[in-house]
Amino acid sequence: MTGPGFGQTSLFPPEPAPDPLLCWLWLANTLGAGSSHAGRVLDVFGGAQEAWENRDSDAFRKAVGSPAFARANLPDNTPAHYWAFARRCAARNIRILPYDDPDYPLAFSRIPDMPLVLYCTGDPLWLNEPGAVGMVGSRRPTEYGLQAAADLGSGLAKNGAIIVSGLADGLDSAGHRAAVKENCPTIGVLGVPIDRTYPASNRELRKKIEQKGCVISEYPPESGPVGPNGFLQRNRLIAALSSALVVVEAQEKSGTMSTVNHAERYGKPVFVVPGSIYSPNSAGTNALLQEGRAKAVCKPSDLFGVLGLRGAAAPAVVRSAPDPMSETERRVLACIGPKAKGVEELGAASGLPTGLLLGTLMKLELAGRVTCLPGKRYILR
């Protein structure tokens, strides 16, 4: 039988599902930045809306831990609570990138402590472009370090690399400035809320970065001071976003070395600029060489192979903003990791017909996003 009332389990209509973006904001705020539980929550529930709907379950408690479970069930912590905040972000041209956004970096989806929400100023399309190289080092560099960062950064940017760094004093800024000088894209990863620039002296540099590249942070606008831990958390994102990490100068005990540790954890190759044995600023980089944890880089072309760059026989062409990826391309890329996979394996993982899969792989290869190895096995570039 059909008609009003039949099949209805309640006198009241079901509560409408909250906006997906607001669910992501709720979940990210509930877990907190850099949470080691982020990947586990996604494994269990698949997305933020599903997590919200199961927030009072034992499965949710086990996935997020007791402190986050308590925060998730506070009366004033609901997706609707973030509606006005999202409107203010839009008014300030701060793009909110949740985990399921097409412009969210695929590179972050492969680390267990990924940020569930990113905040971005500038053009987020660069976040999924191939050829990203992290360039980090001392905040108090020598003239040698500054010159090396300028020469390497300029040469790499002109040949298609995207410099990724932390927009901090010293060698981070030197890498960004080298790319900006060549009118090439560069990505700044902040360790402070997205509506702040630290140091304040880099505000003009940030504006130039946003004109051609972008700046991202996992810390929302209008939030309080993050403290030193914010910069250490930021370092994992620089390492994850980069296909390779270049350390120009670093002392043995420094924040830069934490970025190296993250790069090693993610299986990213590490390169260092050899320095004077008498310079404390090169003690860390020289030790990485001595221990076999890094390779030496002396000129930009030393990195062309690992970044998939061909080099410039003719004058470099200034890169224009990339085209957005299709949902099918993102689906295939999400199935490809640092370990090469064959067509059959990718077909099973993606659920795509073989013809569509092969066509998509060809597009990704031509775009420089994947490399085809012998035996028709594909790996991220």
UniProtKB/TrEMBL annotation:
Domain Smf/DprA SLOG positions: 96-304
InterPro entries: DprA (IPR003488), DprA_WH (IPR041614), DrpA_SLOG (IPR057666), WH-like_DNA-bd_sf (IPR036388)
Residues in DprA winged helix domain copies: 321-376
GO biological process, one term: DNA-mediated transformation
Recorded superkingdom: Bacteria
Transmembrane segments: none
Gene3D superfamilies with a match to the protein in the record: 3.40.50.450, Winged helix-like DNA-binding domain superfamily/Winged helix DNA-binding domain (1.10.10.10)
Family: Belongs to the DprA/Smf family.
UniProt-recorded name of the protein: DNA protecting protein DprA
The organism of origin for this protein: Faecalibacterium duncaniae (strain DSM 17677 / JCM 31915 / A2-165) (Faecalibacterium prausnitzii)
